[in-house]
Amino acid sequence: MSEQASSLAGQCALITGAAHRIGAAIARLLHANGMDIVIHYRNSAAAAQALGDELTAQRPDSVALLQADLLAPDSPRRLMEGVMAFRGGLDLLVNNASTYYATPLGTATEAQWDDLIGSNLKSPFFLSQAAAPLLRERRGAIVNLIDIHAERPLKGYPVYSMAKAGNAMLVKALARELGPEIRVNGIAPGAILWPEQGLSEAERAEILDRTALKRPGTPDDIARTLLFLLRDAPYITGQIIAVDGGRTLHQ
Asked: Which residues, at least 6 apart from 63, have a Cβ–Cβ distance to it below 8 Å?
C-alpha cells in the first residue's frame, strides 16, 4: 500500500447515494486510498451490489451496503447503527444523495417541495446530526455535495436552487457547531455529468461555452477535490469549493 493510501487505512466513510455517478467515483477513490466504505443506496440495489463486489475484490471485507430512504424519519438512526455494526465508528460522512428536477414557478407542488428540500437539505442535516457523535470521537469530517446554482439560481429550478442554497449554509453552520473536533466543507460541481433526463447538443454546447475551460469535468474531479479536503487540508473548514471549470466567472 502506498504512503498516501496508508494515511487513510482503517478509516471508514459513509457515502450517501454512492451506487452511481459522482457517489460511485468518490467511493472508488477513497477505497483506493485505504478507506473502508459504507455504500448507501435507496433503489439502486443492483448497482450498489456491483460496486461493492468490485471494491471487495480489491480488498476483502472493506465494504458494506446499506439501503435507506433518507426521507424516512428513522433513516439516520438506522444508518448509524449499520456503520457501527460494520466498523464501530465513522471518520467521514459524504452527503452526496440528491434529487434534481425542474419545478417552474406556477407548477410546483408541495410534494415536490418536500422531496427536493428533503433530499437536498433536511436529510443532510439530520444525518449529520446523527453522525456527529461518531465523527467527534475520531475527529472526523463531513463533506456535502452542493451545486454552483446554490449561488446563482437555475431558471426553472427554483426549489432545487433554494434547497442547495440551504445546503451551502448548512456547511457553514455545521462547521461552527461541530468544530473543533469535526471539519465540515462542501463541493459545488458545475458541468460534471449531464442530467439523466438529457439535454440537447445545443444546450450542452451553450453550457460549456460559459466555462473558462470550455469542457466538462468528470466525477473524478469531484472525488479528487474531496480527497484533498479530507487528507490534505486539516486547516480548512466551513468552505465550499466550486469545481466548475470557471463557469461561475461567466457574467
From this structure: 31, 36, 37, 38, 39, 51, 52, 55, 56
Q: Which of 151, 176, 170, 168 is nearest to 237 (CA)?
A: 176
Per annotation, catalytic residue among 41, 101, 157, 160: 160
pLDDT in tens, 37-62: 999 999 999 999 999 999 999 999 99
Cβ-based neighbours of 151, under 8 Å, separated by 6 or more: 165, 168, 188, 248
For the question of residue 160 being annotated catalytic, the response is: yes
pTM over 0.90: yes
Domains of the chain with CATH codes: 3-249 (3.40.50.720)
Nearest alpha carbon to residue 128 among 154, 167, 87: 167
pLDDT, mean over the chain? 92
